Predict the 3D structure of the following.
Amino acid sequence: MATPEKFKLLKDQGRPEILLSLARVKDTGRLFLGASDGKIYDLDLLAEKPEFKSWEGHQSYVTGLALAGETLVSGSYDGKLIWRDITSGEIKRTLEAHSRWIRKLALSPDAKRVASVADDMVCRVFEIETGKQVHELHGHEARTPNHFPSMLYTVAFSPTGQHLATADRVGHICIWDASTGSKVQSLDAPGFYTWDAKQRIHSIGGIRSLAFSPDGTQIVVGGIGHIGNIDHLDGPSRVELFAWEKAEKVHEFLGDAKGLVESFAFGPDGKWLIGAGGDNGGFVQIYDLEAKKVARSEKVPMHVHSITLSETADKLFACGHGKAAVWEL
Amino acid sequence: MTDLSLSRRNFLGASAATAATAAVAADMTSLDVLQNPLLAGELKQQGKRVILLWLAGGASQLETFDPKPGRPTGGPYRAINTSVPGVQISELMPKMASRLSKYTSIIRSLDTKNADHGGGARLMHLGRRDEPTVKYPDLGAVLARELGRIDSQVPDYVSFYTATEGRGNAISQSGFLGARYNAMFLTQGNVPPNLSRLAEISDLDHQQRGELRKLLSERFADGRQSASLASHNESYSRVRGLMASETLFDISKESQSVRDKYGPTLFGEQCLVARRLVEAGVPFVKISRAWWDSHGQNFETHLELVSELDHVMSALLDDLSERGLLENTLVVTLSEFGRTPQINSSLGRDHFASAWSSSLSGCGIKPGTVYGASDEDGRTVKDGKIGAAELFATIYRAVGIDHRKDYHVGARPLPLTDPGTKPVTEVLA
């Protein structure tokens, strides 16, 4: 199978909030969902009657979740990281981790570390067990070339945990050695950033999603391409694939869908990739990496903010604007 | 024919304005001028100026002056305390938060009904709805008329709009006041084009050409009665004065430290020009900062634009204050409308005119006051609802203009604001 053959909605559950981040208990349909009301929702989407249970703790949008065994780390626009026991819901630790919005978290493959990126333009790496900061990574400019605040949107670990990648609003990507904290590569993907100097005199865009291929040799970054009318997300979804060690762009995918690619999930064999996001609507796209084409593009009922694949790659879980959903692949 | 009622200009006498100004200043008591409320008002407005920061496209009240943290409509930004106890504004405005008690009053209760860019912008430029038979002057033209000096060597109304989006909505029209009060409208950078005398023409040539034009024009006008012709000639008569004001637009005349305070953005540079202009006596300057129409990614857009507004507005108010200009200069922030409390699925906010905000700083304003309130989700005004007319009346009163005065077009009296309109006295000093 080059790409998933089916794409069928199994179930969805609505919420009034915007569901921005997602973590799943392995081999189950139990999801933790970070929401715009500052809460984390606990939902078994595959249960016969799914129910949302909630935990409080943050003062703003919960934009990152990392689940390490029984420990859930959440990050928020309030700048805090909160450690929580998922059985009791008890808060174990709170860190004032960043001075500005936390945009995303990434869990190392061995589940021992969590990385956070924020609009203070710093990536910080913490030990899950102790909460101790291991690295503070500075590689992104605080201002855009046009003198406005930049934003550090996304972070991902490589499958072996050896590397870490971060990407920002203007399309700058840094690859770090996760053990030493040294920068090993820099890439630029300026096609994700639109600066409108004439009509509206401000910007839109940025790299919103990032993932390493299963063999770790490639990274994929997602966002939106050039936008004519930057009042809206009225530009083509955009994905670029890099052989990162050679700093070589392998391919760029411009989907037929409009909007931001917010999240990625690689198929286990590395031959295909799912990207999801949206504008005022939502989409899921399947990219055939061997044929270098968008193999499938599906409209979905919400702007998708985060996705994850089941271990056998037969289900796609997602959360987004007012909804969590699971599809059969 | 435009026939303006008793005003400072008539009072002074257009033919001997300069001398009369000196006479009044020297001997007001002998004229018993302060016993006449209208004349007293006219004198109050001497030397007053207004800078309008036009936030074109519709800035969000929720991400500026009326945050709703913790509410479903509130968005992700926190509210922060200001220097006024009990008053909070968006965390995107820390510099203005610390200056609120010194300079600024907030109005949180605009309900202007029109959430269309074109219609909203016209309403918030004219202070009233259009009328088929009358072409009303916009705020800038009225203030140029009321605050300008007949013998001024600088422009009365300068308007910057560099972005192209929404420029057509940001009207500049002098209406029945005549071309004399049209804006000097700058759309390409910070310096007016074609203001310099052509290098191949000597100053004497230029003067003589002007005199020839005047002679021909007067011959043409002889026996004709036309307000537009008179206003056309009046505009020409000011050309040499306007040419002399070219250096006002040149911010390289400022020290680097002053330029650094305003920052490197176009909006910052234009606000520095605005300060130079009001310092030189220009009564009305509009800086249009476009484009705030954040249907998608509202929060990113506002992070960009509000951060800039907070920095530049603070720098402008500090600079005006330090130069002793703020007590005579009113700084207004205004849009055509605000933005919806509802956050759409593109994480955007749409057009919203039912409960939005403006700010007034400096001249005639009681700093640190907050007028009106929206409900807990920002969907409606719950206290102190006002429209464009009341806001305009407040602006007029702040700079000493009687908002109840009439203009006359022919025999028809045209009130500056609709009869019964009341200014928001709570924010006035």
